[in-house]
## 1
Amino acid sequence: MGLDFAFAAFRQRISYAALISGDSDLCPAIEAAKNEGVITRLIHGPKGSFHNQLWSNVDERREITTEVFKKLRLENKKGNR
């Protein structure tokens, strides 16, 4: 996944990427993508569920919470009417 992410950045196929992960193995790919101008966002669980280096390397962060899921469910219900 990290290689696909980095290749997409090198080929200028992406300008923004949201990652759902906690694994520091993606840090080199994130750094490479950022060097290509890609804005990176980490979608993560509660503190302790992600590596600190991953947290530090991304541009934006958003925690997945119960409230986020509730909001997504409400938006989905409204869109299906």
Note: The helical segments are 2-10, 27-35, 52-57, 66-79.
## 2
Amino acid sequence: MTDKSTILVNFDGVIYSYKSGWTGIDDLPDEPVEGAKRGIEQLRENYNVVVQSTRCSQPRGIKAIEEYLETYDIKVDGVVYKLPPYLLFIDDKSITFEGAWDEDLLKKVREFKPWYR
């Protein structure tokens, strides 16, 4: 990797459409999320893009993701399980912490639904 800042991108639901839900650590039957390849290409002009996934807890999960990215010609700067230092994380299951553990945050947690649900 270069000296660029790193953007971490979650795999399931952000690159991989996850329409079939969980079908196994190395089973990836669904197409990519529309625009994922182009978006990552644009990010890589200024950042390192590293894919993170709990699938990477096992070598076969890492291999499945790498093969998936290769199949769809999606180029990234790494595939990891543990989080490296990063500038920002793109994920389908996250809430931005805005500095306060207040009712607004707790309400966001209670009402949260990923984009594909």
Note: Residues 59-71 form the longest helix (13 residues).
## 3
Amino acid sequence: MGAVRSLAQGALDYAADGNDQGFPFDLPYLDLYVPCLHAAWAVDAFLRHPPADQKVVQALHRLDRILRPIDGAVATLGQVAKTLSERAQLFTELRDALRLTEGKPSGPESNDAGQTQQTLRDIRKAVDDLADSLRQRRPERGPAKDARQAIDLVLAHLERHGNFLWGHAIPIPDQLGGGIRLVDRTTNILEGFFPTMKHGERRRSGRKDLAQDFERLPPAAALAANLTRPDYVSIICGGSLDQLPQAFARLDARDRRRSLAARSTNGKPSCDVESASLNAMDRRLVRTKELERCVLAAAGCHA
């Protein structure tokens, strides 16, 4: 009975086969399909020579009924799994060339400018070599249509965005201190900041749904996190946070009409926030029957 239970639990533990990076870096459905298929085959083999214990046999039959749809559709699902595996392998090759694989930093591996520039040159050569390899491996004709489309997709993106993959080692003029400044090759740090900001806002407000909070939060609020960095404080405030009020006062010293206090209405500052989603007031308006009737009437007049 323990063996049967282990078969089922092994299939349900499919998440352990991934890297906990989410789609598309992990393919959870593929990770679930493979152990389920293997478990179905194992159950079928056990039932050919059933054990003497009838409770174990009943458990095997029950597990077989659960897994049978997967084994019965092996041709269809198998082709999908094969396609996903091939595309995942292609995606992994691209990430390896760009050195974006798990466990490797997004930026160069060394603080030494010479070694870092060599690292960036190595990455560029690896991407160029991959592109040449894909062109050679690309099937010109025949049944390998999906492989051809996948390779064309990667090559098209490299052609379109290739110029933006480089230039991360920026030389600084001598009058500004000279040397090399390095910028991150990915937006991982920026993207990772948003969950941190949400976590802080959730702790502050105690609310689970933060949609309205972030709709009303001015974009510049994210810059407040920089005040925890001594170098930022030194540049903006002239040395310490004690001088922050003076730094704010200097922002509109030449024209006080530009201040938030002067531009406020009824004590509320005016701040235009561009958002991809509708705010609460707009949602209530566009969902009214009156607006719908107005639009339909105008559309009918046009017809």
Note: Residues 102-112 have pLDDT under 50 and may be disordered.
## 4
Amino acid sequence: MGRPLIESVPNISEGRRPGVIREIAEAAVGAGCWLVDVASDADHNRSVITLVGTSRGLPPGLVRLCEAAVERIDLRTHQGAHPRMGAVDVVPLVPLGDATMQECVELSRALGQEIAARLDVPVILYEESASAPHRRNLAAVRKGQFERLGERLATPEWAPDYGPPAPHPSAGAVAVGARETLVAFNVNLRTDDLKIAQRIAVAVRGSGGGLRYVKALGVPLEERGEVQVSMNLTNVRKTPIHRVLEMVEREAERLGVAVSDCEIVGKVPRFALYDTAAATLRLRGFGAGAVLEECVEGAVNEDRGE
């Protein structure tokens, strides 16, 4: 992938109304902005929308998506297991191909200004775009959620980077920033005891002394009668998926419960699956060169001169 494309994975606080979710996701589609995937969860009441676009086409698409979400989502009546502070909770920009992190940082700042000006929604920059070190971590930015957002934004430490000093009445605020590739990986447990999922989340996440590049929390899955260890893996090269699963399984076994199944929300880079396959099957020297489709794609691109 040599072209300078950018991925964005906006998370919206709606996972139960398919028609509304579709309208919001499709609002982004336009010249230079393509819809790749929509993953929704009713228990979380949240949807993860994956977009890919050019530096010129993606930002207008994201503004259209935010407009559609603000019109259709009211956090005053929203309930779900996942923490949230905004109708559009977070808008990350991720460099792909020849795109650079600095380019994504600059685009995120311009995008944040545009969202704030067009929608009258406060914007806080996070991760690589953060205006201060304590604003890098999304969990810190979102602490207190929508219900405590007004009092937080009123403090100098958490004043918005762009937009009004108070939350939008129904849409809250949005975090915008550039970051590296992230994998949303969830492990579901055969129990309805939320405390077990919470204990495992504390054990596995980096802030609790577990795996450095893992953020985790325990959430209930009421429709399934189970609980989930919901995780963001912020560097799957250094903390691969299989290592995370092994630790969750070990902690679950220690607490007397079994893993039901796992899920990846949104998209995952190919190398992460290759690493997992190599470790699980104990394959020596396994990688993209051993995968038929990768070889075919490489040969075709070479023949085309790409």
Note: The chain has a mean pLDDT of 94.
